[in-house]
Amino acid sequence: MDGARIVLLGAPGSGKGTQAERLVEHLGVPAISTGDMLRAAVRDGSELGRKVESIMASGALVDDQTMAAVVRERLSKEDARAGFQLDGYPRTIGQVDTLDGILAEQGVELTGVVRILVPEDELVRRALARGRADDNEEVIRHRLAVYRDKTEPLSRHYEARGLLREVDGHQAIDEVTESILEALRAA
Ligand code: AP5
Ligand code: MG
What's the CA gap between 117 and 166, in Å, rounded? Predict the structure, then answer.
C-alpha cells in the first residue's frame, strides 16, 4: 500500500493514536498526530504551546488558522512526501478545505478516510483510565460534544467523496488494526 494518504477519524479515545502507531509498519508512512504535536509544543513552552495550552486543557478546538500553519509545515517535510496518516486532523469543515488545498498544491490526493467507531461509555472509560492532563470527566465530555458538533459531519462529507471506510473500534487492539487494513485493502 505504497503512497497511502489516510485520515483517521474518530472520537477522543477511539484509538486513533494507538492504531496510527501500529499502522506505520504496515503502511510504511509516518503517523502525524496534531494532538501530539501540540502537546510537544506545550511541553517546550514555545509560542505555539503557550497559545494552545489553555484551549487544550478545556477540551475546545484550537482555531483553524493556527492548525493550518502546523499541518502545512508538517506535510511539507520530506518523510510525508510519499504518504502519511493524519491522526486528529482535519476536525472541522474548514480544516477539510485547508487539507485539500495543501494536497492540491502537492499534486496528490487522499487515498482513504478511516472512521473508528466506539460507543460513548467506552470512550469515557478509556480516557479516564488513561489519565492525560485533559482527561478529567468534565473535559472528556466537552471533547466528545465538540467532536459530535464539529467533526462528526466530516464523515458524511468524506462518504460523499467515496473515501470513507468504517471500522468497529470496540474490539481488541490487534483486531482493530486488522479491520483497518482490511477496510483499506477493500478500497
Ligand atoms: P488529540 O490528541 O487529537 O485528542 P483526542 O481527539 O481527544 O483523541 P485522543 O488522543 O484522546 O484519543 P485517540 O483516538 O488518539 O485514542 P488513543 O489511541 O489515545 O487532541 C487533543 C486536543 O488538541 C484537542 O482537544 C484540541 O484542543 C487540540 N487539537 C488537536 N488537533 C486539533 C485540530 N486538528 N484542530 C483543533 N484542535 C486540535 O486511545 C485512548 C485510550 O484507549 C488509550 O489509553 C489506549 O491505550 C486505549 N485503547 C485504544 N484502543 C483500545 C482498544 N481497542 N481497546 C481498549 N483500549 C484501547
Ligand atoms: Mg490521540
Answer: 7
- Kindly list the distances between the CA atom of residue 104 and the CA atoms of 37, 44, 107, in Å, as whole numbers in the listed order: 23, 32, 5
What is the pLDDT tens value at each position of the chain, 187 positions in all?
Answer: 458 999 999 999 999 999 999 999 999 999 999 999 999 999 999 999 999 999 999 999 999 999 999 999 999 999 999 999 999 999 999 999 999 999 999 999 999 999 999 999 999 999 999 989 899 999 999 999 999 999 999 999 999 999 999 999 999 999 999 999 999 998 6
d(CA 121, ligand 2 centre) in Å: 17
Q: Whose CA is nearest to atom 29 of ligand 1?
A: 35
**Residues in the 5 Å CB sphere of ion ligand 2:** 17, 35
Helix (H, G, I), strand (E, B) or coil at 47: helix
State the cell numbers at 56: 487544550
176 CA from centroid of ligand 1 (Å): 15
Ligand 1, atom 20: closest residue by C-alpha? 35
Closest by Cα among 2, 5, 15, 186 to 115: 15
Query: What distance in Å separates the CA atoms of residue 122 and residue 101, rounded to the nearest whole number?
Result: 35
User: Quick one: which ligand is closest to 56's CA?
Assistant: 1
Cis peptide before 30 (omega within 30 of 0): no
